[in-house]
Amino acid sequence: MRRRGDLSAPVRVIDIYHKGSSKRNLKLSSKTRTIRTDKQDYTVLVVTDRMDLSAETIALIYKYRWQIELFFRWFKCILGFKHYFSYSENGLTIQVYYALIASMLITLWTGRKPTKRTYEIFCFYFSGWVTDEELATHILFTSVSELF
Protein backbone atom coordinates (compact mmCIF):
# COMPACT_ATOMS: atom_id res chain seq x y z
CA MET A 1 0.00 0.00 0.00
CA ARG A 2 1.30 3.42 -0.91
CA ARG A 3 1.64 6.19 1.59
CA ARG A 4 1.18 9.89 1.05
CA GLY A 5 4.94 10.46 1.01
CA ASP A 6 5.40 7.86 -1.76
CA LEU A 7 3.54 9.90 -4.40
CA SER A 8 5.71 11.61 -6.99
CA ALA A 9 3.05 14.14 -8.04
CA PRO A 10 0.25 15.92 -6.20
CA VAL A 11 -3.16 14.28 -6.45
CA ARG A 12 -6.67 15.20 -5.51
CA VAL A 13 -9.62 13.10 -4.40
CA ILE A 14 -13.02 13.77 -5.94
CA ASP A 15 -16.27 12.54 -4.39
CA ILE A 16 -18.72 11.52 -7.09
CA TYR A 17 -22.17 11.13 -5.64
CA HIS A 18 -24.59 9.05 -7.70
CA LYS A 19 -28.27 9.47 -7.00
CA GLY A 20 -30.09 7.15 -9.29
CA SER A 21 -32.74 4.63 -9.93
CA SER A 22 -30.43 1.91 -11.11
CA LYS A 23 -32.14 -1.47 -10.89
CA ARG A 24 -28.93 -3.46 -11.19
CA ASN A 25 -26.50 -4.29 -8.42
CA LEU A 26 -23.50 -2.00 -8.32
CA LYS A 27 -20.09 -3.62 -8.42
CA LEU A 28 -17.22 -1.33 -7.54
CA SER A 29 -13.82 -2.92 -7.85
CA SER A 30 -10.26 -1.96 -7.13
CA LYS A 31 -7.00 -3.83 -6.75
CA THR A 32 -7.69 -4.57 -3.11
CA ARG A 33 -11.43 -5.14 -2.84
CA THR A 34 -14.75 -5.41 -4.63
CA ILE A 35 -17.85 -3.83 -3.18
CA ARG A 36 -21.35 -4.95 -4.12
CA THR A 37 -24.38 -2.97 -3.07
CA ASP A 38 -28.10 -2.85 -3.75
CA LYS A 39 -28.22 0.84 -2.87
CA GLN A 40 -29.29 3.21 -5.60
CA ASP A 41 -27.44 6.16 -4.09
CA TYR A 42 -23.70 5.81 -3.58
CA THR A 43 -20.46 7.75 -3.57
CA VAL A 44 -17.35 6.88 -5.55
CA LEU A 45 -13.96 8.33 -4.66
CA VAL A 46 -11.74 9.03 -7.66
CA VAL A 47 -8.07 9.92 -7.22
CA THR A 48 -6.58 11.95 -10.06
CA ASP A 49 -3.50 13.98 -10.85
CA ARG A 50 -5.39 16.16 -13.35
CA MET A 51 -5.42 19.51 -11.63
CA ASP A 52 -6.35 21.35 -14.84
CA LEU A 53 -9.84 19.80 -15.10
CA SER A 54 -12.86 20.66 -13.01
CA ALA A 55 -14.41 18.07 -10.70
CA GLU A 56 -17.50 17.99 -12.96
CA THR A 57 -15.34 17.15 -15.99
CA ILE A 58 -13.55 14.38 -14.08
CA ALA A 59 -16.95 12.98 -13.04
CA LEU A 60 -18.15 12.99 -16.68
CA ILE A 61 -14.97 11.24 -17.83
CA TYR A 62 -15.47 8.61 -15.15
CA LYS A 63 -19.13 8.25 -16.12
CA TYR A 64 -18.26 7.64 -19.79
CA ARG A 65 -15.11 5.58 -19.16
CA TRP A 66 -16.59 2.43 -20.67
CA GLN A 67 -17.52 4.24 -23.89
CA ILE A 68 -13.95 5.52 -24.06
CA GLU A 69 -12.62 1.97 -23.57
CA LEU A 70 -14.90 0.67 -26.33
CA PHE A 71 -13.71 3.42 -28.70
CA PHE A 72 -10.06 2.54 -28.18
CA ARG A 73 -10.81 -1.18 -28.50
CA TRP A 74 -12.49 -0.45 -31.84
CA PHE A 75 -9.61 1.81 -32.82
CA LYS A 76 -6.98 -0.82 -32.01
CA CYS A 77 -8.74 -4.10 -32.88
CA ILE A 78 -11.05 -3.35 -35.78
CA LEU A 79 -8.94 -0.72 -37.51
CA GLY A 80 -5.69 -2.48 -36.72
CA PHE A 81 -3.88 0.40 -35.04
CA LYS A 82 -1.81 -1.50 -32.52
CA HIS A 83 1.03 1.01 -32.76
CA TYR A 84 0.98 4.75 -33.16
CA PHE A 85 2.77 6.30 -36.12
CA SER A 86 3.69 9.33 -34.07
CA TYR A 87 3.52 10.38 -30.46
CA SER A 88 3.22 14.09 -31.15
CA GLU A 89 -0.18 15.74 -30.83
CA ASN A 90 -0.37 16.47 -34.57
CA GLY A 91 0.68 12.92 -35.51
CA LEU A 92 -1.92 11.33 -33.24
CA THR A 93 -4.60 13.71 -34.50
CA ILE A 94 -3.85 12.76 -38.10
CA GLN A 95 -3.94 9.06 -37.26
CA VAL A 96 -7.29 9.35 -35.47
CA TYR A 97 -8.78 11.34 -38.37
CA TYR A 98 -7.41 8.78 -40.80
CA ALA A 99 -9.10 5.95 -38.88
CA LEU A 100 -12.42 7.76 -38.56
CA ILE A 101 -12.50 8.72 -42.24
CA ALA A 102 -11.59 5.16 -43.30
CA SER A 103 -14.35 3.77 -41.08
CA MET A 104 -16.94 6.18 -42.45
CA LEU A 105 -15.95 5.47 -46.06
CA ILE A 106 -16.22 1.71 -45.48
CA THR A 107 -19.64 2.22 -43.91
CA LEU A 108 -20.80 4.37 -46.82
CA TRP A 109 -19.43 1.97 -49.42
CA THR A 110 -20.68 -1.28 -47.85
CA GLY A 111 -23.70 -0.03 -45.91
CA ARG A 112 -22.50 -1.84 -42.76
CA LYS A 113 -20.22 -1.27 -39.79
CA PRO A 114 -16.62 -2.02 -40.75
CA THR A 115 -15.18 -5.31 -39.59
CA LYS A 116 -11.53 -6.09 -39.26
CA ARG A 117 -11.59 -8.23 -42.42
CA THR A 118 -13.40 -5.57 -44.46
CA TYR A 119 -10.90 -2.97 -43.34
CA GLU A 120 -8.02 -5.28 -44.28
CA ILE A 121 -9.46 -6.04 -47.73
CA PHE A 122 -9.80 -2.32 -48.41
CA CYS A 123 -6.19 -1.77 -47.33
CA PHE A 124 -5.08 -4.55 -49.68
CA TYR A 125 -7.23 -3.10 -52.46
CA PHE A 126 -5.69 0.37 -52.15
CA SER A 127 -2.23 -1.20 -51.97
CA GLY A 128 -2.89 -2.99 -55.25
CA TRP A 129 -2.82 -6.50 -53.76
CA VAL A 130 -6.54 -7.16 -54.32
CA THR A 131 -8.44 -6.75 -57.58
CA ASP A 132 -11.81 -5.09 -58.10
CA GLU A 133 -13.43 -8.50 -58.45
CA GLU A 134 -11.95 -9.79 -55.17
CA LEU A 135 -13.13 -6.67 -53.35
CA ALA A 136 -16.64 -6.99 -54.81
CA THR A 137 -16.70 -10.70 -53.91
CA HIS A 138 -15.75 -9.92 -50.31
CA ILE A 139 -18.42 -7.22 -49.98
CA LEU A 140 -21.06 -9.44 -51.58
CA PHE A 141 -20.05 -12.49 -49.55
CA THR A 142 -20.17 -10.63 -46.23
CA SER A 143 -23.54 -9.09 -47.17
CA VAL A 144 -25.03 -12.49 -48.00
CA SER A 145 -23.49 -14.20 -44.95
CA GLU A 146 -25.12 -11.61 -42.66
CA LEU A 147 -28.54 -12.70 -43.89
CA PHE A 148 -28.07 -16.22 -42.51
From the structure above, extract its key features.
single chain, two-stranded antiparallel ribbon, 148 residues, 2 domains, alpha+beta
Biggest sheet, spatial arrangement of strands: 1-4
Mean pLDDT: 77
Instruction: List the secondary-structure elements in sequence, H or E.
Output: EEEEHHHHH
**Which range does the strand content fall in?**
15-25%
Radius of gyration: 22 Å
Quote the distance from N terminus to C terminus: 53 Å
Residue share in helices?
40-55%
Low-confidence stretches: none
Count of alpha/pi helices:
5
| Integer count of domains | 2
Total number of beta strands: 4
Q: How would a crystallographer describe the biggest sheet?
A: 2 strands, antiparallel
Q: Could you say which overall geometry the principal axes of the C-alpha atoms support?
A: elongated
Class derived from helix and strand content: alpha+beta
Question: Could you explain how this protein is built, in words?
Answer:
The chain is of the alpha+beta class. The chain folds into 2 domains: 4-63, no CATH class; 69-147, no CATH class. It has helices at 55-63, 65-78, 89-110, 116-127, 132-147, and strands at residues 12-19, 26-29, 34-37, 41-48. The strands form 2 sheets. The protein has a two-stranded antiparallel ribbon. A hairpin with a 4-residue loop joins strand 2 (26-29) and strand 3 (34-37). The protein starts with 11 loop residues before the first strand and ends with a helix. The model has no long low-confidence stretch (mean pLDDT 77).
